[in-house]
Specification:
With 349 residues, this protein is mainly α. It has a domain at 144-195. The chain has helices spanning 3-14, 38-42, 66-74, 80-120, 139-168, 171-195, 200-212, 230-237, 240-282, 286-348; strands spanning 214-216, 223-225. It has a two-stranded antiparallel sheet with strand order 1-2. A hairpin with a 6-residue loop joins strand 1 (214-216) and strand 2 (223-225). Helix 4 (80-120) crosses helix 9 (240-282), helix 5 (139-168) runs antiparallel to helix 6 (171-195) and helix 5 (139-168) crosses helix 9 (240-282). The chain is elongated, with a radius of gyration of 48 Å. Belongs to the Luc7 family. Residues 287-310, 318-336 have a biased composition (Basic residues). This is Cisplatin resistance-associated overexpressed protein. Residues 254-284 have a biased composition (Basic and acidic residues).
């Protein structure tokens, strides 16, 4: 067992600070610290997927802790560092998948060039495979061909299911499905061996053709032999490199799909809020109507009060003017009377 696995088991049982003395102070580690692996917090660390393979990235120098991962997952999705970690994980996976796509493209170009050269050199055609026994028109050949096709389809389905179980981490169930495929594969191989021709020349031609027919795996970029033994195909499908790249694709697809759903949900909420605001603008609430009615009534009252006050002022000004006229008239009368009284005395003199 590797040292890292033993250390992780001890950390799980006794805690990360198992070697700290009773009088020593312990520094609490947060998931946002620089020494914590951010890829492990988001989904998984890619350094652990391709150990001892051609795509080995080497050991990860950061801390992997399940408690910190649980704290990260329970943190608010609005946390800026959480979104930043997810973006970093997606960029790292996208870079690895881009490099893989370029390798697959080059491998397919090289394979097509090799096949073209073989065709120019006059290689035997694939239709001679197995001496044409399985393509015969006899009743026995038809039944055997049908049985082999049924077994092959069932084996392929079980292998795909086992691959999915392995990616999701259900290793025991994947191993159980592989055991079932082994028994079906033995039955299919028995039917194929029964159909093999007895002539050594045709058998050697079929083996040679089987070795030369190659293809490139679209998941991990490895070279595969067309029609290879099912055991080798199963070993390849459940290998670290194949499952690692499949897990990278599944993780990136899941994160992008979750983000797309979140964007759609936010857009729906925004549309709903806009519609509600438009409805409020078109039909104001009763409280605003009441306020408007009160304002209009208060304005009418103020206007009526102003009018009444202006009328009162006008009436008062009229009264004042009439009083002033009356007072002037009385003054004029008094003056005239006084003049009249003085006039006879003057006449006598």
């Amino acid at each position: 067992m590797a040292t890292s696995q033993i250390a992780s088991m001890l950390d799980e049982l006794m805690g990360r600070n198992r070697n700290v003395g009773p009088k020593e102070s312990v520094r609490e580690i947060h998931w946002s610290d620089s020494e914590v692996c951010r890829y492990h917090l988001v989904q998984f660390c890619p350094h652990e997927l391709f150990t001892n393979t051609k795509a080995d990235l080497g050991p990860c120098s950061k801390l992997h802790d399940e408690e910190l991962k649980a704290q990260f997952l329970s943190a608010s999705p609005e946390h800026y560092k959480k979104a930043q970690y997810v973006d970093d994980f997606l960029r790292f996976c996208a870079r690895m998948l881009h490099e893989l796509a370029s390798r697959i493209k080059k491998a397919k170009e090289r394979l097509s060039l090799t096949q073209r050269e073989q065709q120019e050199q006059g290689e035997p055609e694939e239709e001679l495979f197995l001496g044409g026994v399985l393509r015969g028109n006899t009743q026995e050949a038809k039944e055997r061909r049908h049985q082999i096709e049924v077994l092959s389809s069932r084996i392929n389905g079980l292998v795909e299911e086992a691959e999915a179980k392995g990616i999701s981490g259900e290793v025991e169930e994947a191993q159980g499905l592989l055991k079932l495929t082994d028994s079906l594969r033995q039955e299919r191989d028995a039917l194929r061996h029964a159909a093999l021709p007895s002539e050594p020349s045709s058998l050697s031609n079929s083996i040679m053709l089987q070795q030369k027919a190659m293809e490139v795996c679209d998941v991990c970029g490895a070279f595969l032999i067309v029609g290879d033994a099912q055991q080798r195909i199963d070993d390849h499908l459940l290998g670290k490199q194949h499952m690692g790249y499949a897990r990278l694709r599944a993780a990136t697809d899941k994160i992008t799909e979750d983000r797309r759903k979140m964007r759609e949900g936010r857009e729906k909420e925004r549309k709903k809020q806009r519609e509600e605001e438009r409805k409020k603008e078109k039909s104001p609430p009763r409280s605003s109507r009441k306020k408007r009615d009160r304002r209009s009534r208060s304005r009418k009252r103020s206007k009526s009060r102003k009018r009444s006050r202006s009328r009162e002022k006008q009436s008062r000004s009229r009264e004042r003017r009439s009083r002033s006229r009356n007072s002037r008239q009385r003054h004029v009368r008094k003056r005239n009377v006084s003049r009249d009284k003085r006039s006879p005395s003057r006449r006598k003199d």
